[in-house]
């Protein structure tokens, strides 16, 4: 089953995106470079609940 997670900006700490991951195939936390509309630039977004 896929679990729903939020992606939080590491600079402004706002939760900007929601995505699904399969916990059986993933080990560790998901980290993606995404656009933050609050910072107005691409920043690192980390997995949060």
From TrEMBL:
Annotated Pfam families = Ribosomal_L33
Q: Which GO biological-process labels does this protein carry?
A: translation
Recorded GO molecular functions are: structural constituent of ribosome
Q: Gene Ontology cellular component?
A: cytoplasm; ribonucleoprotein complex; ribosome
Keyword Ribonucleoprotein included in the entry's annotation: yes
Task: Report the superkingdom from the record.
Answer: Bacteria
SUPFAM superfamilies associated with the record: Zn-binding ribosomal proteins
Sorted keywords for this record are:
Ribonucleoprotein, Ribosomal protein
Keyword Ribonucleoprotein attributed:
yes
HAMAP family annotated for this entry?
Ribosomal_bL33 (MF_00294)
Give the family from UniProt: Belongs to the bacterial ribosomal protein bL33 family.
The protein, known as: Large ribosomal subunit protein bL33
Q: Which organism is it from?
A: Pyramidobacter porci
């Amino acid at each position: 089953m896929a679990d729903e997670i939020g992606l939080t900006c590491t600079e402004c700490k706002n939760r900007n995106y929601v995505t699904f991951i399969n916990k059986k195939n993933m080990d560790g936390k998901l980290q993606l470079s995404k656009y933050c509309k609050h910072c107005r630039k691409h920043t690192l977004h980390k997995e949060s609940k």
